[in-house]
Design goal:
The complex is a heterodimer of chains A (483) and B (753).
Chain A lengths: L13 E5 L2 E5 L7 H8 L18 E8 L2 E8 L12 E3 L1 H4 L8 H9 L8 H14 L5 H7 L11 H17 L6 H7 L10 H6 L13 E3 L5 H4 L1 H5 L3 E3 L9 E4 L2 E5 L4 H6 L1 H6 L3 H6 L4 H4 L4 H7 L5 H7 L4 E5 L5 E5 L4 E3 L2 E2 L6 E8 L6 E7 L10 E9 L4 E9 L6 E2 L1 H7 L6 H14 L10 H19 L6 H4 L1
Parallel strand pairs in A: 1-5, 6-7
Antiparallel strand pairs in A: 1-2, 3-4, 3-5, 8-9, 9-14, 10-11, 10-14, 12-13, 15-16, 16-17, 17-18
Helix pairs in contact in A: 3-6, 4-5, 17-18, 18-19
Chain B lengths: L3 H6 L17 E7 L5 E7 L1 H4 L4 E5 L24 E2 L5 E7 L2 H8 L3 E6 L6 H7 L7 E5 L2 H4 L5 E9 L11 E6 L5 E5 L4 H12 L6 E5 L14 H14 L3 E4 L2 H7 L6 E9 L5 E13 L5 H10 L9 E10 L13 H19 L3 H7 L19 H11 L2 H14 L3 E14 L8 E8 L5 E5 L8 H13 L6 E3 L2 E2 L14 H28 L7 E4 L2 E4 L2 E6 H10 L5 E7 L4 E3 L4 E3 L3 E14 L4 E11 L7 H19 L31 E6 L24 H14 L8 E2 L3 H9 L4
Parallel strand pairs in B: 1-12, 8-30, 10-11, 14-15, 18-19, 28-29
Antiparallel strand pairs in B: 1-5, 2-4, 2-6, 3-5, 7-15, 8-13, 9-10, 9-12, 11-20, 13-14, 16-27, 17-18, 17-24, 21-22, 22-23, 25-26, 27-28
The chains are: A alpha+beta (483), B alpha+beta (753).
């Protein structure tokens, strides 16, 4: 993980690596990397498409030192503040171009299939696929699709892009030697440049002591929403960067509890073997949350404090009985239960200077089943019309315990206590769930907005409630039985 | 053959306007937009903004030296509002500042008060109010009034379609650089350099020869930069004129998505009459086009709706009427298909509704009525080289319909949680600008003394690969290696009076103009070659693969040497070719003629699965047989078909624009507007180009490809609808695109749509 850090100063001397160059700049820490590389460094291969992380045209690689290696992730550079790349490595399309002007294999595959038309989105795709080559254990087509799930092309309809990617996967899966160092192989294949091998040592030189976080600094916990909503205000603000507090980035089991560090990214959660062992659908569930270039930045704690009524991660966690470890700037610690955190629309039981350092929940018992459901206009990279999670314990006949959460149906993410009560102790049957759905209807208060009418959200949430049970207990539940 | 441009794209080395180095003293623009949809401007005070840090000038209508008007077809679009505003986003003033940040910060300091007037967002309400851009137009064939009596079934219905945001990746952008002697150079991301040139000249009060418009490429356009690029470029020109400094405008995504023009929503009443066997006897429709607050290209788009009202079908009695209705919404404008999709969607809806009542599959009715050679369109043109049945039959030969039906029936019988459906979608799309004078193009070709060749045309490269196609046309005409050819920027000083790159016609017309220019040069080079070889008849000279042949025999003279010597012999190795599409006529008083050079045909099959628990869907497969003529570049043409298909599917499924009653666009960011993404693309997409389908009406026997395949996407609506019909047999179908997950769930569970 990254070792250097810069805390809480608007203008500081920042040092980082941009491609093969050491950069030292006094630009504001709140200026986004995209603006810096395009305007100040005049590296124009990285494009500005939306400045809200929704298109992927600005995708770059962000490399952080982890032990003796650098871990690279594809990120939307339009939402990464410059202060957050201190001591890190930013790789743009110029950094993967071969110096002789010829094409690297990823680029060649795109040309061969006609996978680029106007060319504006293309560098972003190339960068996301470079991240895929750096990270995917087996170079599977599915991993490649995951890597580019935040890159949108309007010209090709993605048909030729899918073909190009399929060709690349087929070719390089054959060549891949899992025993060998990945970076070395990528250098050999000319997917990355040889100087990439020197980066760990060069980043090591940036290592510095962390300055103390100033009390009035705004903590950037990923910034994937904050820098969409108010980039101008943050540009010159005093900022502190959670991602630089690497000791807060972990997922581990402690006694009977699962503990997620406050700096853990959503993508860390998606890739977590521990989570996969507890929640068999973990990857599927988290694929529904934004996109890779955003998940690589967005944090679990950030999703919680952002307090969106429709926050996917919060809805997932609410049914797990989460407790938040909160630490004040002075070091005072307290705990708050997640379902008690929300006081009203975007209002939290949290004061300035406080930080969520960990999220903990009791490890579900072996017999527990878990489900997350979400429907949005587009299945991936979209905000839900409604979402819900269910945790249920049953002996196959009786529901001994059930917890249900729902998003998009109230000013805050809801833990549905009455609905849970209507399920607990009842027979595991369609009749029970139908009755609970009626209770649920009385527990929610959706409104009309662009995500749908209140009536739609009511119907949708009921259907998603049914979907939980049909999915988890196909023998006991069917759509017909619940209709 | 690979498109050369793509080799730069993948390295991020292709230069878009925002990538250009900045000029000294470059000024940045921020536009002040009306936040009221309709009203009278009571007060506009720019003094606080003008005094803000970094601000050079704040420009209002009073600062315009020429005419405050940029409307192309109808003069109804002031560059900056005067007296009144007509939509949320109507530009009120322009802040000009040293930096973009300063311009945007100062914009908030512009004060204005607008007295609200009644807001109309519904085209039918506008129609009742009589607020039309022009009187309604009607295309008629046969006698529908009498024909209804001959039908076994007559049904009426309504079809609604929404708009569509282009979402070109590169937002609207332009730079203006003042030159000596009152000239202005404009670098604009436009599909219509000449339109920008004319509008800038009008607003600046200068002749066209004082305005140069230049561009290299666009980061996508899809029609959204045909007329809609003009305002921004002219604002940059105005700012450059007023300040005397270079000026740049670049809309951010929120501005672009909220305020700029989109595809037209329509509300349509239809009536269709058929025989029991599915033969369509008569079709009637009344289209209410939501034309937005300014005319833009609405009337031309409306016209194409009428042209394509009967899609690929031969219908003896037709009466279709369309009205362009002003509303208080942002402009609606060109978008790939240009009114055609709206027309086709209605006839397909009518057929689907009729199928339900007749108890026939829709595809039986579709196949039965397909156009044949020599059939008559309602606008008086006969089909020539008609490929409607061929593309259909070829598709069906490849995808066994009865086996597919059986597979889907079995699936639906054994599944309650999900249902499958499929639909076929034939297309017939006319190629030419229906504004007939636009069917002309020019190309300026230079052969340099080193044997390299460069070409400037009026065409705009926006990802469609037209530059590569023109290079191939030149290489073939001169019989040289395509790598010797380069395309130059599109520039109104090099090629004048250009037509927009639109109507799928770019390669057809500009390719032909380049071919004409090359033929001229070739003729002169043959004369030179004959002289070099001491032969007295240039007619015996040929160039084949860069080698000069004389009387059918290869000579030692090669292209490079020929050109070098020809230059020394003072041969003119430049030529300007002009092409006008021949034999196009249309009489608007009769609404009859031959408006199209030819038609493009094709058929698609789309298969969908609906999740009946959640009300979502996905598309499992799309198969297409498409009439491409003889493709100049198959890789490019395939890409056009795939891209258009997915845009079409997006239009009828997830792409949804919403407005408040007060006329405020509710979709103001990409987080609220979703276009097809990587995982939405069906796993199986197959495409077959029809063989032996040469097209003598376009360059090198090719066919235009940009727009027609978009309309395959309409089939997606009916594939989902058919799955829904399987889930809820007998429930009344509805025709309201886009068919969002909200509407699917509402259909399944009976909540209000």
């Amino acid at each position: 993980m990254c070792r250097s850090a810069q805390w809480g100063v608007a203008i500081i001397m920042l040092g980082f690596l941009l491609n093969n160059d050491v950069i030292s700049t006094e630009q504001p820490a709140g200026k986004v990397v995209l603006d810096y590389i395009r305007r100040d460094e005049r590296k124009t291969g990285t494009k500005e498409g939306c400045k809200e992380g929704e298109c992927g045209a600005c995708t770059v690689l962000l490399g952080c030192l982890s032990g003796k290696k650098v871990v690279y992730r594809n990120v939307a550079s339009c939402l990464v503040p410059l202060g957050d790349v201190a001591g890190r490595h930013v790789v743009t399309i110029e950094g993967v171009n071969k110096p002789d002007g010829s094409l690297n294999p990823v680029q060649q595959a795109f040309v061969d299939e006609g996978a680029t038309q106007c060319g504006f989105c293309t560098p972003g795709f190339i960068m996301s696929l470079t991240a895929f080559f750096l990270n995917s254990p087996d170079l599977s087509f599915e991993d490649a699709l995951d890597a580019v799930d935040g890159n949108v092309c309007r010209c090709t309809g993605h048909v030729a892009i899918r073909k190009a990617i399929a060709n690349l996967c087929a070719e390089y899966r054959k060549r891949l030697d899992p025993a060998r160092d990945r970076l070395e192989q990528l250098v050999e294949w000319e997917i990355v440049q040889p100087w990439m091998k020197d980066v760990p040592a060069r980043l090591g030189a940036f290592a510095a002591d962390k300055p103390a976080r100033e009390r009035d600094a705004i903590v950037v916990a990923g910034g994937t929403d904050a820098f969409v909503q108010r980039p101008e205000a943050l540009r010159h603000a005093k900022l502190a960067f959670l991602s630089q507090q690497t000791e807060l980035s972990y997922i581990r089991e402690e006694g009977g509890s699962i503990v997620i560090g406050g700096g853990t990214t959503v993508e860390d959660l998606r890739r977590s073997d521990l989570f996969a062992s507890i929640f068999p659908d973990n990857v599927r569930n988290l694929n529904l949350v934004s996109s890779t270039i955003m998940r690589n930045r967005a944090t679990v704690a950030g999703n919680i404090v952002n307090a969106s009524p429709i926050a996917d991660i919060t809805i997932m966690l609410l049914v797990l009985g989460c407790t938040l470890d909160i630490e004040s700037h002075e070091g005072t610690r307290r705990q708050v239960s997640l379902d008690r955190l929300y006081k009203g629309y975007k209002q939290l039981d949290l004061i300035s200077g406080e930080l969520i350092t960990a999220i903990r929940f009791p490890k579900p018992v072996a017999a527990a089943r878990y489900s997350f459901e979400k429907v949005s206009q587009r299945e991936f990279l979209d905000i839900a019309s409604a979402n819900t999670a269910l945790l249920v314990e049953t002996d196959g006949k009786t529901i001994s315990r059930a917890l249900v959460s729902a998003g998009g149906v109230a000013p805050v993410p809801l833990l549905l206590e009455k609905t849970a009560a209507a399920l607990t102790g009842k027979p595991l049957s369609p009749a029970t769930v139908k009755a609970a759905a009626v209770v649920m209807a009385g527990e929610i208060a959706p409104i009309d907005d662009v995500r749908g009418t209140a009536a739609y959200k009511r119907t949708l949430l009921r259907q998603l409630m049914y979907a939980h049970w049909i999915k988890l207990f196909p023998a006991e539940f069917s759509l017909e039985a619940l209709a | 053959m690979k498109n050369f441009d793509t080799m730069m794209h993948v390295r991020g080395e292709s230069i878009f306007i925002d990538d250009l180095p900045e000029w000294a003293e470059l000024q940045h623009l921020a536009v002040v937009f009306s936040n009221v949809a309709h009203g009278t401007i009571k007060r506009l005070d720019v003094s606080r903004a003008a005094a803000a840090p970094g601000v050079t000038r704040v420009i209002t209508a009073a600062d315009i030296p020429g005419e405050n008007q940029i409307g192309g077809i109808f003069p109804d679009e002031p560059l900056l509002a005067e007296g009144s505003v007509h939509f949320v986003g109507d530009p009120l003033a322009i802040v000009v500042a040293r930096t973009r940040e300063e311009a945007y910060a100062a914009r908030r300091l512009v004060e204005f008060e607008i007295d609200p007037l009644p807001v109309v967002t519904d085209p039918r309400e506008s129609f009742k109010n009589g607020t039309l851009i022009q009187p309604p137009r009607t295309f008629a064939l046969g006698d529908t009034d009498k024909a209804w009596a001959d039908c076994d079934l007559v049904i009426e219905g309504t079809a609604e379609n929404g708009g569509q945001e282009h979402f070109y990746l590169e937002t609207q952008i332009a730079v203006a650089v003042p030159q000596e002697n009152g000239e202005m150079k404009l670098i604009s991301s436009t599909q219509s350099p000449t339109v920008v040139q004319k509008a800038a000249a009008r607003v600046l009060g200068v002749p066209q020869h004082a305005v140069e418009v230049e561009l290299k490429r666009l980061g996508g356009a899809f029609g959204g930069k045909e007329d809609q690029a003009t305002a921004w470029a002219v604002m940059a020109a105005l700012a450059a004129r007023v300040t005397g400094k270079p000026a740049k405008i670049c809309l951010d995504r929120r501005e672009d998505i909220t305020f700029t023009g989109k595809r037209h929503p329509y509300s349509t009443d239809f009536k269709i009459g058929l025989k029991k066997d599915g033969t369509i006897v008569a079709f009637q429709a009344m289209y209410y086009q939501n034309s937005g607050a300014v005319a833009d290209l609405s009337t031309s788009i409306l016209e194409r709706t009428l042209y394509h009202a009967t899609n690929s079908y031969n219908i003896p009695h037709v009466r279709v009427t369309a009205a362009a209705c002003y509303t208080n919404l942002h402009p609606y404008t060109a978008f790939r298909g240009f009114g055609g999709p709206q027309g086709m969607y209605v006839i397909e809806s009518a057929i689907r509704q009729a199928a339900e009542k007749l108890g026939l599959p829709a595809h039986v009715i579709q196949r039965k009525n397909l156009l044949k050679e020599g059939d008559l369109f309602p606008y008086g043109q006969y089909t020539e080289r008609c490929q409607a049945e061929r593309t259909w039959d070829e598709l069906v030969a490849r995808q066994d319909l009865s086996a597919l039906q059986k597979r889907i029936d079995q699936y639906n019988a054994s599944h309650t949680d999900s249902k499958k459906g499929f639909a076929l979608m034939p297309i017939c799309f006319g190629i030419s600008f229906t504004t007939l004078f636009l069917n002309q193009a020019g190309a300026l070709v230079h052969v340099y003394a080193d044997g390299s060749v460069t070409v400037s045309t009026g065409v705009v490269e926006m990802g469609q690969g037209v530059h590569m196609k023109i290079m191939q046309v030149i290489a073939r005409t001169l019989s040289i290696d395509v790598r010797r050819v380069h395309t130059q920027t599109t520039n109104t000083f090099k090629v004048a009076n250009t037509s927009p790159t639109a109507a799928s016609s770019g390669a057809d017309m500009n390719g032909k103009a380049a071919e004409i220019a090359c033929s001229e040069i070739l003729g002169r080079l043959k004369t030179a070659a004959a002289a070099i070889l001491g032969h007295n008849n240039p007619g015996d000279i040929q160039i084949r693969d860069e080698v000069v042949w004389c009387e059918g025999r290869e000579t030692q003279l090669k292209w490079k040497e020929l050109v070098q010597k020809a230059y020394l012999m003072k041969t003119n190795m430049s030529a300007y070719g002009h092409y006008a599409v021949p034999n196009l006529t249309f009489d608007k008083t009769k609404e009859k003629g031959r408006p199209f050079a030819y038609h493009v045909y094709g058929t698609a099959l789309i298969e969908a699965t609906v999740d009946c628990i959640r009300g979502t869907y996905r598309f499992d497969a799309v198969h297409m047989v498409h009439d491409i003529g003889r493709s100049i570049n198959e890789l490019i043409d395939e890409g056009q078909v795939y891209g258009a298909l997915m845009q079409g599917i997006g239009w009828v499924t997830m792409e949804e624009l919403l407005y408040s009653k007060e006329g405020k666009p509710l979709v103001d960011s990409l987080s609220k507007y979703k276009v097809p993404d990587m995982r939405f693309t069906p796993e199986t997409v197959s495409l077959h180009f029809l063989e032996n389908a040469d097209n003598p009406y376009a360059v090198m026997n090719s066919k235009a490809v940009g727009e027609p395949p978009l309309m395959y996407g309409i089939g997606a609506y009916f594939a989902v609808l058919n799955a829904l019909a399987a889930a809820r047999p007998g429930r009344e179908l509805f025709f309201s695109a886009p068919l969002t997950p909200k509407k699917v769930l509402s259909f399944l569970y009976g909540e209000a749509r």
